[in-house]
Amino acid sequence: METTIVQLNEWMIKLPKKLEVFSEAAASNRPAPKKWSPKEIVGHLCDSAIHNLQRFINVQHEKNPFVLTPYKQDEWVELQHYQGTSMEDVVVLWRSLNKQIASVLSHIPTEKHMSQFDIGDGKFVSLEWLAKDYIAHLEHHIKQIDAQLPLGGKVNEKRT
C-alpha cells in the first residue's frame, strides 16, 4: 500500500504541473464527438476519486466481501458540469480528493489490505489490488491527456 500512496502523492504534484500548459480553450477542446476534453478527463478522475474514497472507507467497516457497485461515468461527467468549470477549479477538486484518499489509505490497518471486493461474475479483488488499480486508472487517463497536450509537445518536468 505504501508504494500506491507514494505514487498518488507524486501524481498530486506532477498532474497539476502538466495541466498548466493548457489554456482554458485547449482544456475544453474535445478531440472528437463523444470524447472527453482534458478538463472532462480530470473531472472523470474526480468522480473516480469520489467513488473510490467511499470504497476505501466502506471496506473497513462493512461485511466482507464488499460489493463494488459501478457508476455511470459519462452521466457523472455531464451532470457535474466539468466542461463549464474552470480547469483550475477542477484540478483543485481533484487534488483535494486525492489528498484525502492518500490519508485514508495511509491509515488503513495492514490486516484490512486483503479485504475482498466482489466485482461481479464471481470475481473478487483485494483492497490492495483496488488501490493499485486506482493508480493504473489514473495513469491511463493521464496518457489520454498527454495525447492532447498543446502543440503536440510534452511538458518539461522540473526535477525536484
Descriptors:
globular, Four Helix Bundle (Hemerythrin (Met), subunit A), 6 helices, 160 residues, 3 strands, three-stranded mixed sheet, 57% helix, mainly alpha
Care to give the gist of this entry?
This protein is mainly α and 160 residues long. The chain is built from six helices and three strands, in the order αααβααββα.
Give a structural overview.
Helix 3 (38-58) packs parallel to helix 5 (87-106). With 160 residues, the protein is mainly α. The protein is globular, with a radius of gyration of 16 Å. The chain has a 3-stranded mixed beta sheet. It has a single domain (2-152), classed as Four Helix Bundle (Hemerythrin (Met), subunit A), CATH 1.20.120.450. It has helices at 2-19, 24-28, 38-58, 73-80, 87-106, 127-146, and strands spanning 66-67, 116-120, 123-126. The chain has 6 helices and 3 strands; from the N terminus they run H-H-H-E-H-H-E-E-H.
Could you give a short account of the major beta sheet? 3 strands, mixed
- The first-to-last residue Cα distance is 24 Å
Q: What structural class is derived from the secondary structure elements?
A: mainly alpha
- Evaluate the radius of gyration: 16 Å
Quick check: average pLDDT? 90
Order of secondary-structure elements: HHHEHHEEH
Helix content: 55-70%
Multimerization status: single chain
Our count of domains comes out at 1
